[in-house]
Amino acid sequence: MAENHLRRHAVEAVTGLSRSSIYAMMDAGDFPRPVRIGKRAVAWPQSAIEAWLANRPTSKGAE
């Protein structure tokens, strides 16, 4: 079964992060790096984004 890949706009929508935040976090080693899917195109493996979201700290709201 082939892995799904998410382009930057989809990653922004899923994570709620801006383009600059994504690249800044990648530089800091806090966000997965994309893979090349074409000569001038990159995308993030969906599993990598899902794993990052699952391991991201959450804040507890007021109850």
From TrEMBL:
Pfam families named among the record's database cross-references: Phage_AlpA (PF05930)
Listed InterPro entries: AlpA, DNA-bd_dom_put_sf, Prophage_regulatory_activator
Organism the protein comes from: Ruegeria pomeroyi (strain ATCC 700808 / DSM 15171 / DSS-3) (Silicibacter pomeroyi)
Keywords tagged on the record: DNA-binding
Protein name, entry field: DNA-binding protein, putative
Gene3D superfamilies, A to Z: 1.10.238.160
Signal peptide annotation: none
An annotated Gene Ontology molecular function: DNA binding
